[in-house]
Amino acid sequence: MLIYLFATLFSVFFACLMYYANQESLTGAGIAQSRYIRQTVLIPKSRHKYNYFLMACCWMPLFLVSGLRWNVGTDFPGIYLKGFKIIADGGTFPWEPGYVLLNKAVSMVTDDPAGIFILTSFVFLTFVFKAIYDLSVDIRLSVLFLVIDGFYFQSMNTIRQWITLAMFLYSIKFIRDKRFIPYLIVILLASTIHLSALIFIPIYFLCQIRIPPRKGILVLSISIACMPFVRGIFNYIVSFTKYKWYLNILYNKSDFSITDTIIGAILMFLGYFYYRNAKDDKTYSILMNLQLIAFIVSLYSTVIILAERIVPCFTAAELLFVPLILSQEKDRKTRMIFTILLVTFFALTCYYTYGVLGWSNILPYRSVFSR
User: Fold this and answer.
1) Are the CB atoms for 84 and 113 separated by under 8 Å?
2) Which residue, 68, 140, 262, 317, has fewest beta-carbon neighbours within 10 Å?
3) Which residues make Cβ contacts (< 8 Å) with residue 148, sequence separation at least 6?
4) pLDDT of 249-262, one tens digit each?
């Protein structure tokens, strides 16, 4: 895990440099602002190039580790490596056209399969870091939670899905600004990488609705009451899609994750606890809705197949939501305690999940230079 640890520390280090440099800039301008990322308009344009440079420095360590990996990730050899070789040889592989196009583009430049993993890591992390830059109230925590919430490691396994999730995170700003056309364009492009991205089209409209605590509890209660009927309906819908093969005996079982449920419950409680402080914050409302949906889906994992592939569609936004929740606590000591507790909990969970249990086969790490 050491290479992941060092990459994370370097990335967070550069995030801290950018954070504190802008804090000083705003303070010097006489602006009391502790959440500068959401207020980039207040920062002189002359500083944006400096920010982009530091953001690139922040992005680089995680990109190098992910892009230069070899045979890291459960699906690496049997799906992504195999698929690239088939497409490079002129064959076909059952992927969406956008991802096939990426493979063909790489194969036109090089016959080395490492190229596709460099490109996909570039695309994934670029969209994620742009979303963090545009939407995070604390870039340091967002970069940290990208790793300790497991999203970075999952992106090395289910590559196509995580590219679409990164594109969704980037497009959340269009939900906030009520710009449906740009949002739709991004989601449709994402669907050419992984068809599951189409689930985000109705999410645009759901996130335009404010769901305060009482309504949230009502929605959760109704969702729980509907659980006995969900499995049959879900399987019926899936049976008409190309994913119907998941209904075979191997995959046709519940996959309840106690970890996802505990994390979802904690963040939903904290989110609604501070909801009144952020009742006029559109971004908070959007992320709160996504967290509510994530918690409901994690509960539904007891009755629907492969829920672990659906849950990340909504939990991915936690890397933006956790810093936003913490920013609502006005008492500095209390905020620090909550931050330490959450970081410790997520970090230990991440270590146990990926370091001890070996999820996603990210260990041992191997680079393209050790092939």
Assistant:
1) yes
2) 262
3) 8, 343, 346, 347, 349, 350
4) 555 555 667 888 89
